[in-house]
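It is worth pausing here to work through a concrete case rather than discussing structure prediction in the abstract. The textbook approach is simple: state the sequence, then state the predicted structure, then interpret. We follow exactly that order.
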Amino acid sequence: MTVLSRLSKLGMAIEVTPGTYLAPTFAVPFTKASYDTVQDPLRDESIRANDSVLQGLYAGPISSTWDVETHLYPDVAGYFLRMIGPDTVTAATSTTLSSSSSIGGTSISTVASIPAGSSIKIDTAANTEYAITGTPSGVGPYTIPLVTVAGGSTPLPLAIAHSSGVAVTTTTTHTFKQVHTGVRPPAYSLTVFDGVDTRGWAGCVMSDLQIKVDPKGTVTFNPKWSGFPEAAVSTFTPSYTTLPPFLGWQWNMVNAGGASTRGLTYDLSLKRAVDVIHSSDGSQGPREIFAGGLEVDGTYKAIYENTTDYLLYLNYVQQAATATIAQPAQMGGNQIGGCSLALTMSQSGWSKGTRDLGGTYVQASFSLSGIHNTTDAGVVQAVLKNFVTAAY
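Step two, the predicted structure:
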């Protein structure tokens, strides 16, 4: 019987011991997924006094590949950003309401102060509400204004009433940077139910992570892995994120210290050369999957209304390039979360600049690459702010 692909489910886990399978610890909502068993045929073309070339065909070394595309969800993104390096966590500010709040209120009263511009989560479960804070006042309890955007003054009215004593927390900051001690990026266990059966892949190491930003669409992640052969595993019950993905129009670009509204698209490609190592262990599968050094390259398409971007290329100005995607706390009456992701190449090399007169308006396309620097402790760093308190 033909199987409906939309009934499939994909789960993952970051392995404790590389190559040792773990059942899924998180589910991945995806738009595309493909997976291959790579088994190199060993051909016997020996000469045997006959007119045929192929005398035998034998199973060679075996491994697997995975290619997934997903929207960039704020609470799932960190699992993929581990390709860069470990997650350094800056804990959230946690406090409670010192008095109850009512629907339509534009401020809250808290036991501890909360810095201005913070994205906060008020209450739990069905009463969860998100907001962005203005400048606090008082000496305890503190009055915290609620605004629509960081640094703004437009009040954000509460949509839910909250009781005194309920939790109020800011976002947790997750910073992903490279390490130079020889510790390699993590291995993942991937599990899929494809409508036919449930299969698991251990030891999967990420070779590519493409991040695409376009104001006309969602921000997308496209990770690729090489891994161990598949095996039959137990089924699992997925628990999916309830947060909306980052949207392309939430993108802000800063080049060489100057904010730009000229950006049209931004594609970033993170790569590690990955070797599937087959060795003298008597096994058809690999001994390990080994990841090499990190490189990052990008393309930036922009409106060409002045020479600001072009001169970064022409003069080889190797300053910081930062793409930030920041959600509002609420949108259209829906609770969004106010999460953010900043991708920074503190030393960016602009290696190509092409101007295009073929469209309705003049455009330019640039190629840029991350150069190793001490600020990023590598070629790129990612700072993710969300309400996940544990390290990825």
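Step three, interpretation. The chain has two domains: 5-40+61-89+174-386, 93-170. The longest helix spans residues 308-314.
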